[in-house]
User: Fold Recombination protein RecR from Neisseria montereyensis.
Amino acid sequence: MSKNPDAFTRLINALKILPNVGPKSAQRMAYQLLQHNRDGAQELSEALQHALKQVHHCERCNTFCEGTLCDICADSSRDPRRLMIVHMPADVSGMEAANCHDGLYFVLMGQVNPVQGMDLSHIALDKLVARLQNSEVEEIIIATNFTAEGDATAYVLAELFKNLPYKVSRLARGIPLGGELEYVDAGTLAQAVYERRMLKE
Amino acid sequence: MSKNPDAFTRLINALKILPNVGPKSAQRMAYQLLQHNRDGAQELSEALQHALKQVHHCERCNTFCEGTLCDICADSSRDPRRLMIVHMPADVSGMEAANCHDGLYFVLMGQVNPVQGMDLSHIALDKLVARLQNSEVEEIIIATNFTAEGDATAYVLAELFKNLPYKVSRLARGIPLGGELEYVDAGTLAQAVYERRMLKE
Ligand SMILES: [Zn+2]
Ligand SMILES: [Zn+2]
Assistant:
């Protein structure tokens, strides 16, 4: 049936690895790139290479970063006593846009999946524990999503901190149920930080 | 606000050139690639390079192709008397899957936009005229979309063929109004070919 040339088919297959991109979208994207935006295709290819080479994890907070420390960790005006734990870099961006947290972050770069047996290998727990050693952190704000994965991750974190000397809170449930942080507006995000529920004083 | 490293931001911007990918999706894609699928990112980068280098246009039908002629144009069992004109390669794939056209194709690689002044520079009209010179074509089947752009393109084509010695038809309007060919099932596509309306005998 389809008589697409091999290089075109390979590109379609490569595009299908993108989240929420099915066969039809991938075919449309490949056509769009090759027919109407070859400069864009070239730039995307190079941006991928550049990012693969340059982007690694911040030594302190685990977010994406090009140097040793990210801008936020390197900013001495941030309050080192409050550490907010989030799922991914987009959550840091959203929180910064809401302008309601002047502390630091830790980015788990993953969530616990309660359906798949609470596997902890997808979240950077070891790095988090190391981050807390000899730190000035007094309060930990768990800012995971209000989804099954986010709740499971919050549970794992709360257990981890149970016998450690931190105040521990979680974002107020002002965020709509089932909502993911990156789709919530700045005002709602700020509200949820101000009204965070204390889990442990 | 957002403290994304430059290489990450560059990748997000590069991903935004993809059709239907906004800032949020692009951010999510970049995160997914760098955190969970670096092999996929590498493959996507290489597939883009390979496609940019290898894929050009079939000399006869103008579709994407790696050699001089595409598989369909090179297939001597196809009937050279019937030429179907479509918008893009995905439409050829869909038509082949419907298994209702044993002739050849011509791929315009674009559509006329009636809102933006019927600019003809986006469709390969010159190449189509050259294709028809000294050809065995007797009937032309216009298989453009049933959208404003597809209708405008069909109009331009019908005008072009008005004084030329071809039978000219357009797909039957069995395809739902506003529908685009690549989203139509094979049965409906076949129906639309069998019931094509003659525009000129
Ligand atoms: Zn950092
Ligand atoms: Zn061809």
Remarks:
- The first strand of chain B starts at residue 56 and ends at 57.
- Residues B 58, 60-61, 63, 69-70, 72-73 surround zinc ion (ligand 2) (CB under 6 Å).
- The mean pLDDT of chain B is 88.
